# Entry
Amino acid sequence: MKDCLFCKIIAGEIPSRKVYEDKRLFAFEDIKPQAPTHILIVPKQHLETLLEISDAHNELIGSVFLAASKIARKQGIAQSGFRVVANCNQDAGQTVFHIHFHLLGGRPMAWPPG
Ligand code: 5GP
Ligand code: ZN
# Structure
């Protein structure tokens, strides 16, 4: 998608600190980390929000959580704990309209979130 920030990062047109890639996903460090580990796991397919997910994306979404646990192990936060968050639309604070999953860890986190 032409004017999408995350499509440009996936294409390498905008630099990022990549931590993981496979045929469906691209993952990189968040530019404004909210925890010692803050990685964005981004499907390569441009979908604007979680609301666009359909049965056709079952494998894609499954692969997100598999990648999250792989990355968490590699980053050394698997045993201490981590959180995977996807924000959808205004009330959740979504700012980039290409779906992505935040992988956060390295510090205790409050619940409920703010
Ligand atoms: P959202 O608020 O949509 O759930 O998350 C968007 C995330 O993208 C934010 O955590 C923000 O810091 C991150 N972000 C925005 N622009 C860039 C960028 O150019 N590079 C990287 N690595 N992260 C970005
Ligand atoms: Zn995109």
